[in-house]
């Protein structure tokens, strides 16, 4: 939905956001409660059948008895069932196709390609037509 949001405060104010912005909000909530957290990404097929690909924004939270544990703030709907059930990880999406990847890094700040995309486009439709991606050597 419009407007396109980037910052946690914008997601709260407008009650909308792409997965990236929702992960920014979750990281802000966790950090405000002194829970170590970061941002993670998956590279997924846009249409679930190969190229084109785009990044999907996630979070990681540090759980003392488990270590870093990935969680997904995007929300569930029919066919998507992300859960918080440590130590088992159940994200909204799983990597299945050649070209898809779980990126192992945990970032303290959003990737610049995410910030640039969400800052450049003001309409939801424009972001959908220009979803951020990175090249991988697989």
Strand fraction: 25-35%
The whole-number mean of residue pLDDT values reads 93
Strand order of the largest sheet: 3-2-1-6
Order of helices and strands: HHEEEEEEHH
Assembly context of the chains = single chain
Report the biggest beta sheet as strand number plus sense, adding barrel if it closes. Answer: 4 strands, antiparallel
Number of helices: 4
Query: Whole-Å distance between the termini?
Result: 34 Å
The dominant shape is globular
Q: Radius of gyration from the CA trace?
A: 15 Å
Q: Which class of secondary structure composition applies to the elements?
A: alpha+beta
Write up what this structure looks like.
There is one protein chain. This protein is α+β, with helices and mostly antiparallel strands and 138 residues long. It is 25% helix and 28% strand. The protein has helices spanning 8-14, 19-32, 112-120, 124-128, and strands at 37-45, 53-63, 67-71, 83-85, 88-90, 101-107. The strands form two sheets. The chain has a four-stranded antiparallel β-sheet with strand order 3-2-1-6. Strands 4-5 form a two-stranded antiparallel ribbon. Helix 1 (8-14) packs across helix 2. The longest helix is centred in the N-terminal third of the chain and has 14 residues, at 19-32.
